């Protein structure tokens, strides 16, 4: 179709018969020809787009007077879209580990290509002429910016030097306090009993205070007093020698606990816990046969067993439920009673 | 019901070395043979170093350990107020 999308064809456009014209601002294809740029929609889109771009340009313009130099941060690689040139432009200018804010954008805005593209853009989209100047940076402005950039770099360097000096002073302080503590610790150590070093409350307190202060040198005004109040009233900790056997590990190094260590005596034989396989099978058999009495009528009937007259299929009951022995028992009881009553009669 | 055992460090050198017990009293907690760790706010979570300030602290700690262990946790957060937990130095060879 049409290769250059923005080009209006040579054929004179006649209303709806006009060729397809893709407007990049509205991101739509229109068939109104050149009339589209005057339409309300297009002008609205144009206004919105320029309003989006304006704040960034204004921020860059402010930087012309007072250029800011900062330490490089990946955020400074951000790019911004230049509407007129239809390209992405690096917002900030970075070199090494320093960044000049808005440097990139200013450079682009001052360039002659951008000026040409802006003019073209204004002409094609029929934007307001007065607005055009806001989006341009003159070469003089750019020169001014360069001067202020140099000034900014110098002041930044000075600041950095100051910070480094401060840090050095702090480090020196820390070293000194640490050495003090070592000295104070070595002195009481020499005085103490060489066997089990059990520290007295006084020296332990002192050691605690000094060591806690060395851990946080910046806040030397730690509230160590209230913490130690309780320690004074309670019983002091007794210090045993360090449990430091170099070869063997401990809980912190992740060694196996002493109760999990395999004993050498029992390990050669198979350490089976629970019943052996044969015992297990026997238990299973017992479970199966538990429910069935061995003498009951039915399966596993031993034909060589002695049977007496009571061995009958039933005892004349009709509505019986429950085991056969229950009806047998009932029958026997009745037979006994009958016999007794007969005996009683005669 | 918690069982409390008082152990002499001189008579259990293996365990003293394993748990790295450098200060006494130190309390180690177990549940069902599993060693329970507790975050007291001190550097060592494997044992409670020092004595308990009140009985209630001890009871609360045991309850928290029990509840955590019943849920299957291996480390729990101590309910004791940090100011009641004794402070000690983890000095390495007195430096």
UniProtKB/TrEMBL annotation, chain A:
A Pfam entry, by short name: CCDC84
Composition bias, Low complexity: 211-223
Top-rank taxon, per record: Eukaryota
InterPro entries: CCDC84-like (IPR028015)
Annotated segments matching region Disordered: 186-226
Protein known as: Centrosomal AT-AC splicing factor
Organism: Trichechus manatus latirostris
Taxonomy of the source species: Eukaryota, Metazoa, Chordata, Craniata, Vertebrata
Recorded name of the encoding gene: CENATAC
Automatic annotation (TrEMBL), chain B:
SMART domains cross-referenced by the UniProt entry: DIM1 (SM01410)
GO CC annotations on file: spliceosomal complex; U4/U6 x U5 tri-snRNP complex; U5 snRNP
Source taxon at top rank: Eukaryota
Pfam families assigned to the protein according to its UniProt record, in alphabetical order: DIM1 (PF02966)
Protein name (record): Thioredoxin-like protein 4B isoform X2
One biological process term in Gene Ontology: mRNA splicing, via spliceosome
Origin organism lineage: Eukaryota, Metazoa, Chordata, Craniata, Vertebrata
Protein family (similarity comment): Belongs to the DIM1 family.
Gene: TXNL4B
């Amino acid at each position: 179709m049409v290769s250059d999308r923005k080009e209006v064809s040579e054929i004179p456009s006649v209303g709806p018969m006009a060729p397809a014209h893709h407007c990049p601002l509205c991101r739509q294809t229109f068939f109104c020809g050149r009339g589209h740029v005057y339409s309300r929609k297009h002008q609205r889109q144009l206004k919105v787009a320029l309003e989006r771009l304006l704040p960034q340009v204004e921020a860059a313009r402010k930087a012309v007077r007072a250029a800011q130099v900062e330490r490089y941060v990946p955020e400074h690689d951000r790019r911004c879209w230049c509407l007129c040139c239809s390209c992405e432009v690096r917002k900030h200018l970075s070199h090494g580990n320093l960044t000049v804010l808005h440097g990139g954008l200013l450079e682009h805005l001052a360039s002659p290509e951008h000026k040409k593209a802006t003019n073209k853009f204004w002409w094609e989209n029929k934007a307001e002429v007065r607005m055009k100047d806001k989006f341009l940076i003159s070469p003089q402005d750019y020169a001014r910016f360069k001067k202020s950039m140099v000034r900014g770099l110098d002041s930044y360097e000075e600041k950095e030097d100051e910070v480094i000096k401060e840090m050095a002073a702090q480090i020196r302080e820390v070293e000194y306090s640490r050495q003090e503590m070592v000295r104070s610790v070595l002195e009481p150590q020499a005085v103490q009993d060489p066997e089990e070093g059990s520290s007295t409350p006084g020296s332990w307190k002192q050691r605690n205070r000094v060591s806690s202060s060395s851990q946080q040198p910046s806040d030397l005004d730690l509230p160590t007093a209230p913490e130690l109040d309780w320690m004074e009233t309670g019983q002091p900790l007794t210090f045993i020698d360090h449990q430091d056997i170099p070869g063997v590990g401990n809980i912190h190094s992740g060694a196996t606990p002493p109760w999990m260590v395999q004993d050498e005596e029992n390990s050669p034989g198979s350490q089976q816990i629970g019943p052996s396989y044969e015992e297990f099978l026997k238990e299973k058999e017992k479970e199966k046969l538990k429910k069935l009495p061995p003498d009951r009528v039915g399966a596993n009937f031993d034909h060589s067993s002695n049977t007496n007259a009571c061995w009958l299929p039933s005892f004349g009951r009709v509505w019986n439920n429950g085991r056969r022995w229950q009806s047998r028992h009932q029958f026997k009881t009745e037979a006994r009673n009958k016999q007794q009553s007969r005996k009683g009669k005669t | 019901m918690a069982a409390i055992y008082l152990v002499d460090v001189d008579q259990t050198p293996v365990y003293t070395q394993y748990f790295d017990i450098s200060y006494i009293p130190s309390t180690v907690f177990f549940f069902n043979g599993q060693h329970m760790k507790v975050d007291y706010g001190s550097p060592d979570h494997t044992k409670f170093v020092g004595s308990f300030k009140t009985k209630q602290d001890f009871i609360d700690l045991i309850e928290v350990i029990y509840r955590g262990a019943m849920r299957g946790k291996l480390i729990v957060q101590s309910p004791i107020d940090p100011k009641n937990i004794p402070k000690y130095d983890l000095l390495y060879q007195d430096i």
